[in-house]
Every structure is written in structure tokens, then in C-alpha cells.
Design a protein that fits this description.
The complex is a heterodimer of chains A (968) and B (414).
Chain A: E1 3-4, E2 13-22, E3 25-31, H1 35-41, E4 46-49, E5 56-58, E6 70-73, E7 80-84, E8 94-98, H2 112-115, H3 124-127, H4 135-147, E9 162-174, H5 178-189, E10 194-197, E11 213-214, E12 217-218, H6 219-231, E13 236-239, E14 242-248, E15 252-258, E16 271-283, E17 287-289, E18 302-304, H7 305-315, E19 317-318, E20 323-327, H8 332-341, E21 348-351, H9 358-366, E22 370-372, E23 375-381, E24 388-393, E25 402-405, E26 408-412, E27 415-417, H10 420-424, E28 429-432, E29 437-440, E30 455-457, H11 482-485, E31 489-491, E32 496-497, H12 498-506, H13 512-519, H14 532-543, H15 547-550, E33 562-563, H16 564-568, H17 585-590, E34 593-598, E35 601-607, H18 614-627, E36 630-633, E37 638-643, H19 647-654, E38 667-673, E39 679-689, E40 692-697, H20 702-716, E41 723-726, E42 731-737, H21 741-747, E43 763-768, E44 771-776, E45 785-791, H22 795-806, E46 812-814, H23 816-825, E47 874-881, E48 892-898, E49 904-916, E50 921-929, E51 938-942, E52 948-954
Parallel strand pairs in A: 2-8, 9-10, 9-16, 10-13, 16-30, 18-26, 20-21, 20-26, 21-22, 36-46
Antiparallel strand pairs in A: 1-19, 2-3, 4-5, 6-7, 6-8, 11-12, 14-15, 15-16, 17-27, 23-24, 24-25, 28-29, 31-32, 34-35, 36-42, 37-40, 37-41, 38-39, 39-40, 42-45, 43-44, 44-45, 47-50, 47-52, 48-49, 49-50, 51-52
Helix pairs in contact in A: 5-6, 7-8, 12-13, 12-14, 18-23
Chain B: H1 6-13, E1 32-38, H2 42-55, E2 60-63, E3 79-80, H3 87-101, H4 103-107, E4 118-122, H5 125-141, E5 146-148, H6 150-156, E6 171-175, E7 179-180, H7 183-196, E8 200-202, E9 207-213, E10 216-222, E11 225-234, H8 240-246, E12 253-263, E13 273-276, E14 281-285, E15 291-301, H9 309-322, E16 330-342, E17 348-351, E18 357-361, H10 371-384, H11 397-400
Parallel strand pairs in B: 1-2, 1-11, 2-8, 4-13, 11-18
Antiparallel strand pairs in B: 3-7, 4-6, 5-6, 9-10, 10-11, 12-15, 12-16, 13-14, 14-15, 17-18
Helix pairs in contact in B: 2-7, 2-10, 3-10
The chains are: A alpha+beta (968), B alpha/beta (414).
The complex binds flavin-adenine dinucleotide (FAD).
Chain lengths: 968, 414
């Protein structure tokens, strides 16, 4: 049994008792306990079930490498699955549940899998479930899915918050053990800005557990003195409970700080993601002990020797009363010594090495511990818990010499440096034959922007490990039969056994990546931290090659799993992305706006009156505007100032039209094409003065077009004297539209808005009422229209003034849908509707906008490609359904027959389709093969339900073809 | 070749599975082959497979510089769908999807094709219209898709938040027979079947040069020596420009990193694949229980198979908006692959200026789903000089301006 020792425990505070529940049972532990140590103290060795066979499992490790003891912790919005009991610090009220079993941890129906283990070797699912065909989806897969998966799925939205920190330093030290603290001290002494990250809630790493003496002081004392000195230095930042999660290019490092996991709180973020730019990174991440592979090594009670030691020294918890130590190196002897000193029994040390230092043997026989040299565990006895071990010779095939009763086994297969952070960004490893481990190769570090190494490694992480003599023993005994190898676990969580890796090799999965994927070795939540090296060694042996030839799999961030919440940070819900509001936003909100997201903006789709449907609102807005007066908030339209001596030349390249010859005071509608000739944006350009133009873009296009301009100016035409500025948010813009527009504006007094003073396609600065305005006579609706801009700060006041002055005319605000319908009635194209990135101006009958006078413009050369001049390109037409109904959006016109691939032949498609209240019928625009030459022809547009709509090809201008209404 | 089945497993179990043969043979390269495929990714292996299966050409070698399936084929998030907009795309992706339906049986290898359904969310009016257009096109292309409303979306995927606040779900394009498959199994299954037909799959064999005579290909130089061939297929994804250069031509391809990540495994909570293009992220749950997550490509060209973290951040953020519960899951692993992206985001399956040399590349961020269809068409192109499936994907289209642009549905806002 496992239990709490009467005294000791360097990390626990026996005066502070904490209450927690495990699977609903109330238990008690001490402050300083981990969930694992607290459970062990209550003799709760069984902590979980394995992934594939649902084997009963106890804790094996004491840190990040733990594969078995994973818990569902918390409730409701604070529930989180798959938490390692070994790193979960106990707090009062913690509610923990074990995972992956039904109905209970003790009686798990899934354990039946273990009975069939023989039929479920590595990759069995690739070879079976093939017939009958539909069974995979409907029968086999659901069963597999249900028995796989570990923790429960969280049900509720997260009740916690998260944040990001940004930090810069000269030297970042990851790992707060002795080596890390020394590195920090040295860097700080050099006057460097230093940040030190330690994943645990305590400093010092392994040394204090192992009773090390550092610079003449006991480790604990050295650590506290050194910490004090570092804390006193302003250049040094120390963070505990903060793990170095990943190293990325250019000295970018992620730190993952767990702020409230050990002490839940409402008013602080739960996790904090540190985004650190470091001049240099020192990893001092220590080493992890490896298990050994022998039959039954996965039984609860078999643990890493170092973990056993940790529990005794740190938490005063003994995993057993009689512990057998099994090892291939000197280090595990420390565990035996610790146990004996704690008054516990160690009947034997099973040492696989052919010979062991005599001094060591006699030291331990003095302590009453028998050392069995060249020996191995033939088998661990027990069903749900260790009851004993059968011993055999290491170089035998397993015939048992003796049996020893025990209730715990402490195993050590040697140590592996934690090289993850070194490797994330390309640091290479070298195999150290003597020490049987991969260590960082100092000649091949990860390199920075100047080609120099930017990560270095110190201490155990660098392979400076004090494990004494080690023999490269990976399985016990050496000559174990297949039956025995079938019971030796490598990857505990995923149930990968020695026989599985050997099967992979036998079947040709020779590359380490193949073997990993075929067997799932190292793919569990510990990502192979515990036993990947053991697996590689078994693979190398099976392939009759060396471990370095086999190599490792790729080390990828994060070092241990980090929360999605921390990755996302603050940006969630309303502030997930910036929300852009026009100055009139609040007014719209108050007046029934039905919102539509357009990029980051919100625009009113329409303004609903009480009891009105969306459709009715749109129709009312259109009719009202066409017959009297409407108001549109056009502030979101892009407004980019282009200025400089070469601005005209620049705009001539950017637009298909000529812009350099536009007269100040005049406006011109312009088109922009991509280099491939496709129409990408349109808008009205106004020439402000000799070297200033103001370019209007589409709402969605503003930022993109500004970036596009800068791209050309910075990368291609860097010597042209042109400056651009995106003023979209600096101005509010209102379109005053309808036959009564001028009359209404004149009631406000101010500038002359007559057709003579301000003709169509002209603009002027002046005053309307008390407002300083710039007025453009442009129209996207076909009506008399003034687009008026005022400084953003006056937008709302101006809008309200217009609404008030418009009252006698029955003014109505209108939204984007009315805007769309009115432009369609006029046959004006809309970027994003008539265009989709594959349409050129010629397709839309806009050849008039392609200047013939210019030598060049973006897209010009592309237009001469053969397919662009192809007469079979679909061209813009108007479409009217035969019965007056509205054509389905996105429908295609078909011709008879099928193409080579059996698809219906298509000859056109609908690009926009609306009900027009002005014409009281459906109208549409579309692109049709030879369209403009086929006026009057009726086309068939199949609907998705199989029925067909018929529409006649007509002119795309449905309303006021002569333009009499806008030009008055 | 020993056939795989539940009975075979039971039989082999008696001897602790020590009787299983190699999945694919290990052979040294011969002096000469009728056809050589460079690149043992899914597309290269499938091309070889259909050369043998459909055209009787089995004197074939597939040369792989690393380990087979180790490129993007073994790194992708395995979404399979065919509801593409443009005719040529819909044809080849639907061919692929329909071949996936029976691939496990054809290959005698369980590739775990799981037609659990794919939803592409519409979260703006613009997207609604784009997907309705796709639904119309698909109906005429013989691709089964359906426009569904927000309630149906919620019903299919209860863990989704359809109410915003920023981008409420307005509906979605639903392909019920889209889904996922096990990526490694696709590569391994094809490799095993190729090997069974007598083809040589040669790993750790990097092609370093292409030899020709009088404008016609004669063979390749490799790290294992020179190997002759009558026809050559270059199927190397992220390394396409590089190998094309060896064959003496240039490609309109950029190689960029695309990243993905998985959470720790949890019990089943999501039965469909969801793609959310407005916020930019997609997610499904693997049979192991991991949430498999992906997003957009990095902004710069790169060959390192690593990407920048801010992409991971944006993707995770987008998915927490869509699936709030994942906030309390943890990211287990992130990785990247180098994808080969063309100017119009559609692949190139083409003859090349070098006679006898063909290229299959440009699958970019979405070619896993296409593997069987691409192999089917490319094999036909190599064997006969023409395939209706690949006809529109020739590389001359870039010179002619005849693009096959699939980014259309996600075009621009007004
Ligand atoms: C993160 C990520 C997520 C993705 N998600 C999806 C998805 O959900 N759905 C989807 O459909 N697609 C997805 N894709 C895309 C998909 O993975 C690829 O389009 C597809 O796998 C490409 O297959 P391939 O055979 O062309 O390339 P690869 O699998 O990359 O194979 C090319 C092979 O060529 C070899 N090679 C290169 N140069 C040489 C040489 N000189 N000599 C010999 N061999 C050489 C390489 O080693 C490699 O094995 C994703 C990609 C990534 C990176």
C-alpha cells in the first residue's frame, strides 16, 4: 500500500489541510501536495485506465512525463480534462475524476479489450474492418471512437479569462534548477536583461531532492540565497509556474504561465501567454528518467525510481512498504537509500549490468539491501497492483530464479536530457554511447537571422548527468520470448508494447516516423517524454542497426500541452476582432437598423419600422428614395488620399482609366485590375488640386487597396514621389438621394448646389447649414444624389440635421440592400457580385473605362492573353424571368448535353438578383455566353430542387436608361 | 501478398503476429523503368497505382527522398470534400471522393474513409450567396451538396456557437458524403498495392537531376545512382519548383508553410467536419479523440516545415469563437508542411516542355482529398497523353490567362 510517512516532506505544510474529492469521494491532503501525492497518501494507487486496452494504471512519474494519471478536474465552466495529477497542485475544494472508464475506475467494461489484446496488435485496424463496406462508418468507427478519447469533453463555455504578455530580454533562461539559476546569475552579472522561467511552483529542480551540495551549501539553501540575489536585481525577472512552451525562429519563445490553476480565483486571468523575444536562450530544462521494459511493467505500483524518491522526499509519501529497485545504472541506488533512510524496506536492487562497483554493493548490503547483479525482472506479479516480482538472469530467456514479494517497483532505465526546446527550431542531437542518451550537438545549434546559434544548453539538459555507470539495457531479460515481449509496455498511455514496435519493423515500417505512426508510439499526451528513447532502441535492435541511425522523431512545440484559452488570449466574444462603427452607428442602432457585418464594419441592411418585415422595409426605402428622398450612411467607403508630383502618373498605372487628366473639381468613376487583369475594385476618384487625388474604394476594399498601393510604391516604383493616406475613418459620408435631394439641402442654406454651380460628376467644398462639407455630385442609385462628407466628429450631428430637414419630404434612411437593388435597377455593377476575381472589365461591357491613350496600366498586359480575348467569355446582360418572379441567387444557365466529365453544359450564371419594387418584378444581372448578342432569348436556370426558372436576356439597365434622373 | 482481414488477424494471432510480411518490398533500383514517379506522397503513389491498375504499366519505380508519405500527405488534416465551384475542380475532386468510398476494399487496406459530412459555414451575406452559387453549380456537376440553415447546422454540430456575437452563423454548405480518412493509411495502402503489382518503391532515394536527349526525357540522377525511364512523373508538392528546374522548366508555384495542430484526446463530441472561412479555421475530431485544427498559410515563402506562431493564435481564436468549449482543451502538438501554391490555387497536372516528362503539383492546402482522383487522371495523362480529368489543369493556362480560380466564393465584400 501507499501511505503518508509520519514525518518529512520538504514541500508539504502539514498544518494546512486541504479537502478535495476524487470520483466523488472526499479526501484530504496538505498544502504543497500534488493531486498525485495526495492520492498516493490515501493509498489510491489506481488513477486511470489506458487508452487502447483500458488497463488499470497507477501513477508512474512525478512530473510532466506522466502518461497514466490524467484527470478530469473542475466543474461547469471551469472543467478541464486530461490534467496530469503529477503537476496539478492540490487546492481546497478540488474536484477530480479519473478518465476513460465505464461504469467506474475499478470496474471498467472496456477492459475487455485487454482480453483480446492478442487480436489487436499495432495497426490491426488497417488490416481489418474492411467488410462489409458500410460497417466502418456506421458500426466499427463509432465503437472505436467511443472507446478511444481520454477525458470528457467540456460542455460549457470557459468561465475564465486569459491574457498575453510581451517581453524582451538579452538572455532567457528556461528552467529554474541549479544550472538555470547559475546561468541567470552569470548573465545578470554581465549586466544583461534576464528572464527566468520555471514550470513548477518551486525552484531548484532535482538537486534538493537528491541532497546535492552546491558551492559548499546544501542545495535548498543555495537556491534560496541565489533567488534572493536575483530578485534584488532590477534586470532580472523570475517567473515560476511558467513553462517555456516553444522556441520559434528569430529568438521568439512562448512562456505559459499558470496563474490560478493552483488557487482558483475570479478576478485574475487563469493563464498568461508570454511572448518573448530573446537575444539568446539558455535551456536548463534538466533530464527525464526512462522506464525499463519487462513483463508487467505497467502494473500500478511500478514507478520511475526518481518519482519514488520525489514522493518520499517532497511529499513524505511512500508508494509502498516493500520496494524493489530495478535499474541499469547507479542513479536508482539513490532511491533505495532514500527509502531505507525513511524506514522503508528495500528487499533487493535488481541490476541488469553484468558487473557493478563492489563498493556500491557493499554499501547497500550494509543497509540491508541485497544487490542482484546481471539480473532482471522476468515478470511483475499482481493483477491490479504489484504483489511481487519474479527474477531471472538478464542474459537469459526468462527462467525464473526467485520471486520477491513487494508492493512497489522503482525502475530506472537511465536518463534522457530534455532537449525539446533545443530541437524545436532545428537544434540537432548527437548520440552519447557511454551515457546511452541523445544530447544537444553544440556544433549544430538552432540558428538565428545572422546564422549564429541562439540557443545553448546547460546542466542535465546538456547531458551533464550524474547517473554513474550505465549499461544500455532496454528490455528484460535480453532473450525474452515473444509472449513476454507482448507484455512489455513502451508507451503506457497508448498501450504500445515491445512486440508492437518489433512488428512494425518486421512489416517494413523502418523509418522512425513510420514506426511511430504505425504503432502510435510517442503520440500520447506525454508525446513520448517517458519512453520514446526506449522505443527507438527497440526499433534499432529489430532493424539490426544503431540508435543514432534510427534517429528521433521531430520535437514540436509545445513542450507540454498548453490551453487553447491562453493561445487565444483576450480576444474573444465582442472583442474577438475589432468592431468598426461609423459615427452614426448609435443612431442606426436606435432607429431599427438590421445589421449586416461587412468586413469589420457593421452596416445597416435596412431600417425596420415596428411590425415591418425586412423585405417590406427594403421596398419602402427604395420607393421612398426614388419618389422623394433617402439617406445612406456611406462612411465605410474607402477614402484614400494620393498626393505628390507623381501621383497622376501613379494613378494612371493603378486605374484602367486615365486619372492624370482629370480636372481639379471633377470626379471620375474608375476601375482597378489585378496584374492578371481581373477587376478588383472600383470607385469614384476626385481630383482635389494639382497634385492631390482622393480615391474612393469599396467598403471591403479600403485596407486592401491601400496596401496594394503601398506594395507598388514600396516594392516597384519606390522612386516615384507619391504619398498615400487612408482617411476612411476621418470622414463621415452621407449620400442624400432622390428627386427632392437638392430642394431639401437648399432649405439648410449654404453653398450653391444648383446644377450649374455643381454639375453631375463635380465636387466642391463649402458649407451646408453650419457644417463644413465637401460635396460630390455622384450617384450609385440613378437618382439626383449628393455625397457629402464632413469630419467624422460631426457625422452624427450632420446626419441628424439632414433627417430633421428632410422630415417635410418624408425622408427615409436606407441600408445596404436598398443600395444594392437601386444600383441593379440602374445596371451598375457591384464588386463582389458581378465580379468574383475571375471577371475582367470587358466581360462587364466596361471597355469604355480602359483607356486607350495610356501606354500601360496594371492588368493591361494580362488582357492580351489569349483567354482574355476569347469571344466565348461570358458577358454581362440583364435577365428577366418570364413569369416576373425572382431568379434564384447563384443559379446557372444550362445548354443541352454534358461535358466530357459528365457535367451539365453551362452557359451562364446569375450574378445579382432582386425583387425590384420600382418595376414590381424580379430583375437580375448575369454573365452569359455570347450574352449581348442574344437579346430576347430565353434561358433555362435549373434550381437546386430540380425545377427550372426561365429568364429572358435583356439590357442590364432596367431603370432610366438615358440617365435623365441623375443628371439634373 | 497476404490479404488482410479479421480472419487473417485471428490466424496470425496464434503466432503472435510473427508471420506478417512486409507491407511493401525493399528493393534496390533497377537500371531502367518504363515509368518513374518522383515523390512517394499520396499523389505519387496513387499515380503509380493507377498506371498499373488501369493501364497495365507495372514496370514502375516510385522514388522518395525521405520516407513514403512523409511530406504533406502525412501532415494534413485529412478533410475530404468535393463541393468545389468550377467545373474542372468539381470533376476531379468528386472523382477522388467517389474513389475514396471504396478505396479500403480496392486496396485491401483500411484507409478509414469516414464520410461523416462536412459543413462550410456562411457567416456573412456574401458567403451565403457564394455557397448558394456553389450549391447550384454542384447540382449540375453531379456533386451532392445542400444549403442548410443555422438550426440544421446546430443540430449537426451541437458544440457550435451559432449566435455570434461577431459572426452569427447564417447557414452552411453541407456535403453529407464528405469527411475524413486516415492519411498515413492512404499512403501505406497505395504503397502496398503498388509493391504487390511488382513496382519498386525506393525510399531514401533523392532525385538530384533529370537527364534528357533531344528534348526527350531519358532518366534521372539520384542519390542511389542514375536510373533510366521512358516517362517521368514529377509529384513532389513543396519541392516542385526545385525538381522542375532540374527538368529545365519553371513553374508558377510558391512554397509556403501551412500549419495544423491537435488537442489532447477527449471523448467524442463532434461528428462532422466544420470549416469556418470568415473567421478562418476548421476543425474535426479524429477517431483517437483529438480535435484536429487548421487555418491559413504563412505569408512568406519557406521550406522549414515550421510556421509562425501568430497563425496558430489566429486559428485557435477563430475556433474558440465558433466552439467555445475548446477554450478548456489543450494544444498537444503543432506542426507545419510546405505547400505548393499556384497563382489560381488550383493544381497543375500537365505535360511539360520536356517530352515524356509530366508534372502533378500545386495541390497546395487542399490536395489530400484529391489523391485518388489525381492519381487516376494523371496516370491516364501519362499513359495516353490525354485525360478529361486533367485537361483543364495544364500549365499553359497561366500563359493563356485561363485560370481555375477557387477562391471565388470567398471573394470580396462590397
Ligand atoms: C497542415 C496541412 C493541412 C492540410 N490539410 C488538408 C486537408 O484537410 N484536406 C486536404 O485535402 N488537403 C490538406 N492539405 C494538403 C495536402 O496535404 C497536400 O495537398 C497533399 O498531401 C499533397 O500530396 P503530394 O503527394 O502531392 O505531396 P507530398 O505528400 O508532400 O509528397 C511529395 C513527396 O515528394 C518527395 N520529394 C520531394 N523532392 C524529392 C526529390 N528530389 N526526390 C525524391 N523525392 C522527393 C517528398 O519527400 C515527399 O514525400 C494540408 C496540408 C498541410 C501541410
Amino acid at each position: 500500500m501507499s501511505f503518508r510517512l509520519p514525518s518529512g516532506g520538504r514541500l508539504i505544510d502539514r498544518t494546512s489541510e486541504l479537502k478535495f474529492t476524487f470520483n466523488g469521494r472526499i479526501m484530504r491532503g496538505f498544502a504543497g501536495d500534488t493531486l498525485a501525492s495526495a492520492l498516493l497518501a490515501r493509498d489510491q494507487m489506481l488513477m486511470g485506465r489506458s487508452f487502447k486496452y483500458h488497463r488499470p494504471r497507477g501513477v508512474v512519474a512525478s512530473g510532466a512525463e506522466e502518461p497514466n494519471a490524467l484527470m478530469n478536474i473542475g466543474e461547469g465552466g471551469r472543467f478541464e480534462p486530461n490534467q496530469r495529477a503529477t503537476t496539478a497542485e492540490l487546492f481546497d475544494g478540488m474536484a477530480a475524476r479519473s478518465q476513460n472508464h465505464w461504469p467506474s475506475l475499478e470496474f471498467d467494461v472496456g477492459a475487455i479489450n485487454a482480453k483480446f489484446a492478442r487480436f489487436l496488435p499495432a495497426g490491426f485496424y488497417y488490416k481489418t474492418f474492411l467488410y462489409p463496406r458500410h460497417f466502418w462508418k456506421y458500426v466499427f468507427e463509432p465503437i472505436i471512437r467511443q472507446s478511444a478519447g481520454l477525458g470528457a469533453a467540456p460542455k460549457e463555455a470557459d468561465a475564465d479569462t486569459y491574457e498575453h504578455f510581451y517581453a524582451f530580454c538579452d538572455v532567457l533562461v528556461v528552467g529554474g534548477g541549479i544550472a538555470g539559476l547559475m546561468a541567470a546569475r552569470d548573465a545578470a552579472a554581465d549586466g544583461k536583461r534576464v528572464i527566468v522561467l520555471e514550470q513548477n511552483g518551486h525552484w531548484g529542480g532535482r538537486a534538493p531532492v537528491d541532497g546535492a551540495v552546491v558551492e559548499g551549501k546544501p542545495a535548498d539553501e543555495w537556491v534560496s540565497v541565489t533567488l534572493q540575489a536575483l530578485e534584488a536585481n532590477d534586470n532580472v525577472t523570475l517567473r515560476d509556474r511558467c513553462m517555456g512552451a516553444g522556441v520559434y525562429d528569430h529568438g521568439y519563445v512562448l512562456g505559459y504561465e499558470r496563474i490560478t490553476d493552483h488557487a482558483p480565483a475570479n478576478d485574475v486571468p487563469r493563464h498568461r501567454l508570454w511572448r518573448i523575444r530573446a537575444g539568446h536562450v539558455v535551456t536548463a530544462t534538466g533530464a527525464l528518467e526512462r522506464p525499463l521494459s519487462f513483463a508487467g511493467n505497467d502494473l500500478p505500483g511500478v514507478m520511475l525510481a526518481s518519482a519514488v524518491r520525489d514522493y518520499v522526499v517532497n511529499h513524505a509519501v511512500a508508494p509502498g512498504k516493500r520496494t524493489v529497485v530495478v535499474t541499469n545504472n547507479d542513479d536508482a541506488y539513490r532511491t533505495a537509500e532514500v527509502m531505507v533512510n525513511a524506514g522503508l524496506s528495500v528487499p533487493a536492487i535488481i541490476d541488469a549490468r553484468p558487473s557493478v562497483d563492489e563498493a556500491l554493493i557493499s554499501k547497500f548490503s550494509d543497509l540491508g539491501v541485497e544487490v542482484k547483479v546481471a539480473s532482471a525482472i522476468a515478470k511483475v506479479k499482481g493483477k491490479d497492483r504489484v504483489t511481487g516480482v519474479a527474477i531471472c538472469a538478464q542474459d537469459s530467456n526468462g527462467s525464473v530464479s526467485t520471486t520477491i514479494e513487494c508492493d512497489a517497483v522503482a525502475m530506472s532505465g537511465g536518463w534522457s536530457p530534455v532537449v525539446h526546446l533545443w530541437s524545436h527550431c532545428g537544434g540537432k542531437l548527437t548520440w552519447d554511447e557511454d551515457q546511452a542518451m541523445f544530447r544537444p550537438d553544440p556544433n549544430r545549434p538552432p540558428t538565428n537571422q545572422t546564422g549564429e546559434g541562439f540557443v545553448s544548453v546547460v546542466g542535465w539538459a546538456n547531458g551533464e548527468i550524474d547517473q554513474g555507470d550505465i549499461a544500455p539495457v532496454w528490455i528484460m531479460p535480453q532473450g525474452a520470448s515473444i509472449e513476454t515481449r507482448n507484455k512489455m509496455w513502451l508507451d503506457f498511455q497508448n498501450d504500445v508494447k515491445v512486440s508492437d514496435v518489433q512488428l512494425a519493423a518486421q512489416e517494413g515500417f523502418e523509418s522512425v516516423e513510420h514506426a511511430k505512426r504505425y504503432t502510435t508510439l510517442g503520440m500520447a499526451t506525454d508525446q513520448g517524454k517517458l519512453s520514446n528513447i526506449n522505443g527507438l532502441a527497440v526499433l534499432a535492435d529489430a532493424l539490426d542497426t544503431g540508435i543514432p541511425q534510427v534517429g528521433t522523431t521531430t520535437f514540436r512545440p509545445p513542450y507540454t500541452p498548453i490551453s487553447m484559452g491562453a493561445i487565444a488570449g483576450e480576444a474573444r466574444g465582442e472583442i474577438f476582432q475589432p468592431l468598426r462603427r461609423t459615427p452614426m452607428h448609435a443612431w442606426h442602432e436606435k432607429n431599427g437598423a438590421h445589421w449586416e457585418p461587412v468586413g469589420h464594419w457593421r452596416r445597416p441592411y435596412c431600417f425596420q419600422q415596428p411590425g415591418e418585415s425586412v423585405e417590406d422595409a427594403v421596398n419602402r426605402e427604395i420607393t421612398n428614395t426614388r419618389t422623394s428622398l433617402g439617406l445612406l450612411d456611406a462612411s465605410t467607403l474607402g477614402k484614400i488620399v494620393v498626393k505628390g508630383p507623381d501621383a497622376g502618373k501613379f494613378l494612371d498605372m493603378l486605374y484602367t482609366n486615365m486619372m492624370s487628366n482629370l480636372k481639379p473639381g471633377k470626379c471620375r468613376y474608375g476601375l482597378m485590375c489585378s496584374e492578371n487583369g481581373f477587376l478588383m475594385d472600383d470607385g469614384v476618384v476626385a481630383r482635389i488640386d494639382e497634385d492631390t487625388w482622393l480615391c474612393h474604394t469599396t467598403t471591403g476594399g479600403a485596407d486592401r487597396i491601400h496596401a496594394w498601393m503601398e506594395d507598388w510604391l514600396q516594392c516597384e516604383w519606390w522612386d516615384w514621389k507619391v504619398w498615400t493616406l487612408n482617411l476612411t475613418e476621418q470622414f463621415a459620408q452621407v449620400a442624400v438621394v432622390g428627386p427632392n435631394a437638392r430642394t431639401m439641402l437648399e432649405t439648410l442654406g449654404g453653398m450653391d448646389l444648383s446644377a450649374q454651380a455643381l454639375p453631375f460628376m463635380g465636387w466642391a467644398d463649402g458649407k451646408i447649414g453650419d457644417f463644413n462639407v465637401r460635396v460630390y455630385r455622384i450617384s450609385f442609385s440613378g437618382e439626383l444624389s449628393y455625397e457629402i462628407s464632413v469630419p467624422a466628429s460631426e457625422g452624427l450631428a450632420f446626419w441628424e440635421a439632414l433627417m430633421e430637414a428632410g422630415e417635410p419630404f418624408g425622408i427615409t434612411p436606407y441600408g445596404t440592400e436598398a443600395l444594392h437593388v437601386m444600383r441593379a435597377e440602374k445596371g451598375f455593377i457591384m464588386i463582389g457580385d458581378e465580379t468574383d476575381g475571375t471577371v475582367i472589365p470587358q466581360d462587364l461591357g466596361l471597355n469604355w473605362a480602359l483607356s486607350k491613350k495610356k501606354e500601360d496600366f496594371l492588368g493591361n498586359r494580362a488582357h492580351s492573353r489569349s483567354h482574355m480575348a476569347d469571344p466565348t467569355r461570358w458577358k454581362l446582360v440583364g435577365l428577366e424571368t418570364v413569369d416576373g418572379s425572382v431568379l434564384p441567387d447563384g443559379a446557372y444557365a444550362v445548354a443541352d448535353g454534358h461535358n466530357e466529365n459528365g457535367q451539365r453544359n453551362m452557359i451562364g450564371r446569375v450574378t445579382s438578383t432582386y425583387y425590384s419594387p420600382t418595376l414590381d418584378r424580379g430583375i437580375a444581372m448575369g454573365l452569359v455566353l455570347h450574352g449581348p448578342d442574344r437579346m430576347g432569348e430565353v434561358l433555362a436556370f435549373p434550381r437546386v430542387d430540380g425545377t427550372v426558372a426561365y429568364a429572358r436576356i435583356v439590357s442590364p439597365v432596367f431603370y432610366d436608361p438615358e440617365g435623365e434622373k441623375q443628371n439634373v | 501478398m497476404k490479404r488482410y482481414s479479421a480472419f487473417a488477424i485471428a490466424r496470425e494471432a496464434a503466432n503472435y503476429h510473427q508471420g506478417w510480411e512486409r507491407a511493401w518490398a525493399k528493393r534496390a533500383p533497377k537500371k531502367r523503368y518504363d515509368a518513374i514517379i518522383i515523390g512517394a506522397g499520396g499523389h505519387g503513389l496513387a499515380s503509380a497505382y493507377y498506371l498499373g491498375k488501369n493501364h497495365g504499366i507495372t514496370n514502375v519505380a516510385v522514388l522518395e527522398k525521405g520516407w513514403l508519405g512523409g511530406g504533406n500527405t502525412g501532415r494534413n488534416t485529412t478533410i475530404i470534400r468535393s463541393n468545389y465551384l468550377q467545373d474542372p475542380s468539381a470533376a476531379i475532386y468528386e472523382k477522388a471522393r467517389s474513389l475514396y468510398e471504396t478505396l479500403s476494399q480496392d486496396l485491401n487496406y483500411n484507409v478509414m474513409f469516414s464520410p461523416r459530412g462536412v459543413i462550410m459555414l456562411a457567416q456573412t451575406h456574401h458567403e451565403v450567396r457564394g455557397y448558394q452559387r456553389t450549391a447550384h453549380a454542384n447540382a449540375l456537376q453531379g456533386v451532392k451538396t445542400e444549403w442548410i440553415g443555422p438550426e440544421r447546422v446546430k443540430q449537426l454540430c451541437p458544440i457550435m456557437n451559432i449566435e455570434g456575437p461577431r459572426y452569427p452563423v447564417l447557414g452552411g454548405l453541407w456535403q453529407a458524403r464528405g469527411g475524413t480518412a486516415r492519411h498515413d493509411a492512404v499512403a501505406w495502402g497505395y504503397a502496398r498495392a503498388c509493391s504487390d503489382m511488382g513496382m519498386d518503391i525506393i525510399q531514401q532515394c533523392e532525385v538530384t537531376g533529370v537527364t534528357s536527349e533531344g528534348g526527350k526525357v531519358t532518366g534521372v540522377q539520384t542519390s542511389l545512382g542514375d536510373i533510366g525511364c521512358n516517362s517521368l512523373g514529377i509529384v513532389v508538392a513543396g519541392h516542385s519548383s526545385h525538381v522542375a528546374e532540374m527538368a529545365g522548366f519553371r513553374l508558377p508555384i510558391e512554397s509556403v508553410a501551412l500549419q495544423a495542430l491537435v488537442s489532447e484526446p477527449i471523448k467524442p463530441c463532434m461528428d462532422v467536419v466544420v470549416m469556418a472561412n470568415t473567421v478562418h479555421g476548421y476543425m474535426s475530431q479524429s477517431d483517437k479523440g483529438e480535435m484536429v485544427i487548421g487555418g491559413g498559410t504563412d505569408g512568406y515563402n519557406n521550406y522549414t516545415q515550421r510556421g509562425s506562431f501568430h497563425h496558430i493564435e489566429e486559428t485557435v481564436r477563430a475556433l474558440i469563437e465558433t466552439f467555445p468549449m475548446i477554450s478548456r482543451l489543450k494544444m498537444l502538438r503543432q506542426w507545419g508542411g510546405i505547400v505548393d501554391v499556384t497563382g489560381d490555387r488550383s493544381p497543375i497536372l500537365s505535360k511539360t516542355p520536356l517530352e515524356g516528362c509530366y508534372i502533378n503539383c500545386g495541390w497546395g492546402t487542399g490536395g489530400f482529398k484529391a489523391i485518388p482522383g489525381s492519381g487516376f487522371g494523371f496516370a491516364e495523362l501519362m499513359a495516353k497523353g490525354y485525360s478529361p480529368l486533367t485537361a483543364e489543369f495544364g500549365m499553359e493556362r497561366f500563359r493563356e490567362g485561363r485560370f481555375i480560380d477557387e477562391s471565388v466564393a470567398a471573394g470580396v465584400a462590397h
